[in-house]
Specification:
Length: 252
């Protein structure tokens, strides 16, 4: 079985986000970047399936600039066999999920994998749309928010988290699976594996080579920080408390 794991380069989750003065984007210059945590879980799951003998080739794929090679090298050090970097020539710093899904679909159509793993969302814009759009473009079955994956017959048994608890579904191959936090804990990468990753193949292609129309349909007007929380008020008198609730429209 061939598996593709998509991984995105994002601002590290430990970094305090800063917004550019013009409000066009978050500051990334000089900021620590890392693999999206949900995508790291997807790569780890692909490696585990490979170690179990279910996968004969695991391919890591990322969309971004040249510096996105670092997350692909991380995926290779974790256990991926080869990597593909699709260079971002969309002329926009924020690529909408629809375009990302179209780029992913082009790579998938070329590689013909049996399964595609990716994080349920990226921690930068939290769209939670790409996996679902990708499944729609390909016409493949999908299992989102996976917290457990098992091979079953000619497909997968996927336990997924829903509002009411857990749901187990069966999907046939080829399938799109998006990963949740409780699926696994990514491994610590040993130094020898980091060294080996440098010699593994990493191919670079452009959106033009994939013949993808990257014309955006969403206009990003700006980025702003959420409003600061106001200080709480302690009411020691019940009548004052009820009056305050009435003024705010909580009580009629």
């Amino acid at each position: 079985m061939k598996v593709i794991a998509f991984c995105k380069r994002v601002v590290d989750y430990n970094v305090q986000i800063q917004i550019k003065p013009d409000g066009s984007e978050v500051v990334t210059d000089g900021v620590k970047m890392s693999m999206n945590p949900f995508d790291e879980i997807a790569v780890e799951e692909g490696v585990r399936l490979k170690e179990q003998g279910h996968v004969h080739e695991l391919i890591a794929v990322s969309l971004g600039e040249k510096n996105a090679e670092d997350v692909l090298r991380q995926a290779l050090a974790m256990g991926a066999d080869r990597a593909i970097l699709v260079e971002n020539d969309t002329q926009t710093p924020i690529v909408e999920p629809r375009i990302i899904a179209k780029i992913m679909a082009a790579v998938i159509n070329h590689e013909q994998p049996d399964c595609v793993l990716l994080g349920k969302q990226a921690i930068d814009y939290d769209h939670n749309q790409t996996g679902q759009m990708l499944a729609g473009l390909l016409g493949w079955p999908q299992a989102t928010f996976a917290s457990n994956i098992q091979m079953h017959d000619q497909g997968f048994l996927v336990e997924r988290e829903i509002d009411g608890g857990l749901e187990t579904i069966k999907v046939s191959k080829p399938a799109i699976i998006t990963t949740d936090l409780r699926l696994n804990t990514p491994r610590f990468i040993a130094l020898p594996n980091i060294i080996k990753a440098k010699s593994k193949p990493l191919k670079t292609v452009s959106c033009k080579e994939l013949n993808i129309d990257t014309q955006p349909q969403i206009q990003f007007l700006g980025v702003e920080a959420p409003p600061t929380r106001t200080q709480g008020v302690i009411d020691t008198d019940l009548d004052e408390f009820l009056q305050r609730l009435t003024q705010k429209g909580v009580l009629l």
